């Protein structure tokens, strides 16, 4: 589908949008409660997909077009948070309910890994999710979660130690 989009196939682009936009909107809303920002990020993401489809090489977070799409969206969300911070408007925070990814993670991994993930403190899980699943850098994770970069590094280290201990 991405190859067809790269050739300028609007039908393929519409199919991609129709298949992925509901999922992407839910995932973005888990990280940002401001519908205006979510809509802006969605628009920027799909515009970037249309423009950059030719550069897709399957080397995204999980090697798929969906992983590539999420990487673009996550970075656009970080950019939106940065713009909001520069304009001194308060950042909308996601709700405290579990993210869809957390629910999928618990069911995807075997009981041992899923159990270890469930025992992590929410702030440690959030860092693992952003850095490992979403493929964000320390700086991007810092902006996304609204904590200093040093805190992100510390939480990532604590999460790795806790996972190692839980799995040994």
Automatic annotation (TrEMBL):
The keyword Transcription regulation applies. Coiled coil: none annotated. Residues 16-86 form the RNA polymerase sigma-70 region domain. Residues 113-162 form the RNA polymerase sigma factor 70 region 4 type domain. Keywords: Sigma factor, Transcription, Transcription regulation. NCBIfam families: sigma70-ECF. Belongs to the sigma-70 factor family. ECF subfamily. This is RNA polymerase sigma factor.
